């Protein structure tokens, strides 16, 4: 156990979380099989998306009449979180506003991430609080875990499917240079299943704006499935970099700006609006199973 990262286990799973970005860097089963992408063509593992998800037009936010620069997915993934608790089966980290964050995003906030392992797998909880006694906190928050694909021995990427909890016939959002564009993208889900292939991601992420499901199974024809569930988040993104061996399963509260949105930041679609003293929570869980 070091100040830079914390490793923990419950016998069935072993995990490692870094203070930088409060990022999940490793999740292995009892055989040592790694389930989290180790980096490469995409250098991250499971970044925290805050205080925005996706991009803003020209990376600019107009807040109280002043222009602020916020790059894609925000700054939390590149900040060092403070350890609150480290135990044999989990950890808690927190990031709070400071002069550095307020130069980019002039709001008070407290973002707490709680990791825990039990017989049902790994659980991650996000608690976002507005400690300001006067001002509303306008922000988005999202998860971006990247899972090894393929993760079963002797399988190919095209052997894998995603089975959703419920049918997902609704059209998907369209991205243009990272922004939400006009139009719709037909759902690639047939009933409850997507047959996975790199070509699905040639035009960027699959964005489900109002998914009916709150869980899915990522699996090949043989071996265990990776069972992923989420709560509190309203959107879901699926993404990979064509040619790479990972799949990101991304629950979001918020999304990129529309291509024509130039209004004040607080009017941006998809934001949370936390009143003074209010708190919002969400989370996701993952395990291996049938």
Your description of this structure?
The chain is mainly beta. The chain has a single domain (5-289), classed as Distorted Sandwich (Beta-galactosidase, Chain A, domain 5). Helices cover 1% and strands 44% of the residues. It is built from one helix and 24 strands. The chain has one helix spanning 99-102; strands at residues 5-9, 13-18, 24-29, 48-49, 60-63, 66-69, 82-87, 90-96, 110-118, 121-129, 137-139, 141-143, 146-148, 161-164, 172-176, 179-185, 193-195, 206-208, 215-219, 225-231, 235-239, 246-253, 272-274, 279-289. The strands form six sheets. Strands 7-8-9-10-24-20-19-14-17 form a nine-stranded antiparallel sheet, with no helix packed on it. Strands 4, 12, 13, 18, 21 and 22 form a six-stranded antiparallel sheet that branches. The chain is globular, with a radius of gyration of 19 Å. The model has no long low-confidence stretch (mean pLDDT 97). It comes from Asaia siamensis.
């Amino acid at each position: 156990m070091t100040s830079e990262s914390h490793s923990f286990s419950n016998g069935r799973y072993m995990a490692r979380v870094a203070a930088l970005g409060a990022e999940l860097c490793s999740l292995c089963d009892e055989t040592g099989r790694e389930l989290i992408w180790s980096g490469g063509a995409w250098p991250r593992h499971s970044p925290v998306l805050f205080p925005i998800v996706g991009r803003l037009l020209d990376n600019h936010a107009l807040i109280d009449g002043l222009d602020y620069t916020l790059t894609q997915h925000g700054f939390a993934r590149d900040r060092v979180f403070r350890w609150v608790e480290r135990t044999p089966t989990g950890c808690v980290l927190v990031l709070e506003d400071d002069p550095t964050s307020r130069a980019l995003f002039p709001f008070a906030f407290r973002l707490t991430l709680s990791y825990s392992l039990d017989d049902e797998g790994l659980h991650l909880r996000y608690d976002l609080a507005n400690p300001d006694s006067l001002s509303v906190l306008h922000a988005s928050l999202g998860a971006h875990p990247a899972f090894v694909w393929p993760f079963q021995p002797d399988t190919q990427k095209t052997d894998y499917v995603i089975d959703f909890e419920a049918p997902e016939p609704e059209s998907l959002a369209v991205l243009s240079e990272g922004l939400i564009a006009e139009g719709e993208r037909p759902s690639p889900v047939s009933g409850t299943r997507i047959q996975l292939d790199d070509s699905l991601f040639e035009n960027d992420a699959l964005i489900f704006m109002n998914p009916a499901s709150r869980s899915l199974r990522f699996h090949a024809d043989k071996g265990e499935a990776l069972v992923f569930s989420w709560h509190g988040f309203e959107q879901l993104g699926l993404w990979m970099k064509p040619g790479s061996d990972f799949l990101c399963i991304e629950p979001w509260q918020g999304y990129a700006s529309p291509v024509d949105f130039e209004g004040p930041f607080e009017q941006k679609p998809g934001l949370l609006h936390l009143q003074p003293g209010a708190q919002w929570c969400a989370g996701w869980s993952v395990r291996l199973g049938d």
